[in-house]
Structure formats: structure tokens, C-alpha cells
Design a protein that fits this description.
By secondary structure, this protein is mostly helical. It is 76% helix and 0% strand. It has 3 helices and no strands. α1 packs antiparallel against α2 (29-53) and α2 (29-53) runs antiparallel to α3.
Length: 101
């Protein structure tokens, strides 16, 4: 059973919007990081779907590369979250405004 490409694009678009909404609400550092992950997964879904549509392996290879980048990003983000929690005692993004001009 094949899923139409338009349905795949709609699901990816909705996932991307959910991730974007999570970033724009930005109350918690972890919620922002989850939003970024959801947006990257939406991009990976489009890559795999377009790869299946055109019978090419390029999109799937890019999706595997994207998953490797996501794994590295999660490792760095977890270290950042632990550091920020220890430094400020909170994960609220508004508490970390020292770099603003």
C-alpha cells in the first residue's frame, strides 16, 4: 500500500508547524529542543517520501545523515540543559537573558 505524496507532505507540514509552535511558545529549554527535533523529523519524512516518489536513494541517505546529526545535537543539548539547570536552578528560557544586548 502506497501513501500518496500529498498526504505525506501534509503530515510533514503539520509536524513542522507543531515544532515551530513549540519553539515560539518557548517557556522551557527542553520544550524548545523537542520542537527542533520535531521539525528535523518532518524534514526527514519529506526526504524519505520524495526518495520513494522518484525511486532514488539520495533522500534516504540524507535522512540517515540527518538522524546522525540529530543524535549529535541531542547529546550536546542534553549537556547544555544539565549545565543550565545547575547554573541557574531553572530551565525557564526567560532566566537566560544575559546575552541580550
Amino acid at each position: 500500500m502506497n501513501v500518496p505524496f500529498s498526504h505525506l507532505l501534509i503530515i510533514a507540514f503539520l509536524l513542522f508547524l507543531m515544532g515551530l509552535a513549540s519553539i515560539l511558545v518557548r517557556r522551557n529549554v527542553i520544550r524548545v529542543l523537542i520542537g527542533v527535533e520535531i521539525m528535523l523529523n518532518a524534514a526527514g519524512l519529506v526526504l524519505v517520501g520524495s526518495s520513494a516518489l522518484w525511486n532514488k536513494v539520495d533522500g534516504q541517505l540524507f535522512a540517515v545523515f540527518l538522524m546522525a546529526i540529530e543524535a549529535a545535537e541531542v547529546a550536546l543539548a542534553l549537556a547544555l540543559v544539565i549545565y543550565l539547570r545547575r547554573r541557574k536552578g531553572t530551565l525557564n528560557i526567560n532566566a537566560f537573558n544575559e546575552m541580550r544586548g
